[in-house]
Every structure is written in C-alpha cells, then in structure tokens.
Task: structure prediction
Amino acid sequence: MTQAIKQSLTNRAQKVIAALEKNNMKGYLVDTPDEAKKLIAELIKDDKLIMSGGSMTLAETGIQAFLNENYKGIYLDRDTCPPEEIPALMRRAFCADTYFVSTNAITEDGELYNIDGNGNRVAAMIFGPKQVIVVAGLNKIVTDLDAARDRLDTIASPANCIRLKRNTPCAVTGHCAKCKSPDCICSDFVVMGHQRDKDRIKVIFIADEYGY
Ligand code: SF4
Result:
C-alpha cells in the first residue's frame, strides 16, 4: 500500500470510527500489528476464555500466533483442535470473555457486514461473548451496504472459495453467481448496526491491507 493510499484510507477510517461510536461500537486505529497486540493485551488482561472465528486477518497480522503464544490454556484455537471437537468448540465460543474475528466489510455508516456459511462466526458476533474484537485492514472499508455486498461478491467470497478449495462458480469466474452449490459458503447475510450493549463490539483498524 503506497503512503498516499494509506493516508487516504486512514482519513476514511477516522470517519468510520466516528460512525461506529454512534452505533455504540468502539473504534481504534493503530499503525502496525505490534501496536494492535499491545492494545489487545490491555483489552483482554482479565480474560479467562478467549476464542476466535476463522480469519485470514488474524493469521496475517500474527495476532492468532500472539494469542497462542501468550494465552496458553485461555485461548482456544480451533485451528489446533481435533476436527471432531470443533462443533463443541464453536458452541463454547458463546461463553467466551473475548471473541476475535475480522469482518468482510465495514461501511462508512459504521455497519459491519458479514456473510457466513456455517453461521457460528456471525452468531457469536451478535450474541454470547462478553466482548468481540474485530481486527480489520483498511481494505475492508466500503461506502455503504451495496458496496459491502459487491465486495463480498467480487473479492471476499471468491477468494475464500479458492482458499478453501470449494467447487463454486465464483472460484472459477471471480464473481458471485448466487449459487446453490453444496460447497456454497454464503448462507447467512448479517448487518450489524446500532448495538444495545455499548462497546461490546470493538473494531481495531490496522493501517494496511489484511485479509479479504
Ligand atoms: S453464493 Fe456461491 S457463487 Fe456466490 S459468492 Fe457464495 S459461494 Fe460464490
């Protein structure tokens, strides 16, 4: 990301953070993954159970590794869990002190937009964990919900289908075909706007491009 693009998107992130505050969500902007880790350490210092949803951003930023290294026995990582235990682990996420995720898109009106195939990630974002920490690159910012859907149809879902080796039209064409394929990863379409539980949702923007 060039310095000019970074500055432009950082300005945009400030607007999103102000909109998040109006929606009772807390926004942060940090420059690097290491700064994000310092902030996270402060936000989770009293936690007894930490979990996460599937996220390329958490892997790319090193935050998933940071949690595994520093919160042994407290952070339960499904990527290190035997496959047969994953469904129980997903249900346990509802009792977590902190649930880490990214978001597929975030609008300038301070809305989180996510599409989920299994539903466990969006379900835990909506209800259960005491706090949800959303880590996002500036590339996740979009103008509005139409742009959010377009981002999903042309970037996030095709890329995820390729990564997960799903046999779907978008994995071949790079564009959603509104498929009903057995491999489809698009079942639940969730907009999270104004929250009743103030600052339960915390969004940490890291000033670069991460995930998709
Ligand atoms: S509905 Fe099907 S084609 Fe469209 S993005 Fe989802 S998996 Fe791809």
The longest helix spans residues 3-22. The domain at 3-110+119-142+188-206 is CATH 3.40.50.10420 (Rossmann fold). The pocket of iron/sulfur cluster is lined by residues 153, 157, 161, 168-170, 176-179, 181, 184-186 (CB under 6 Å).
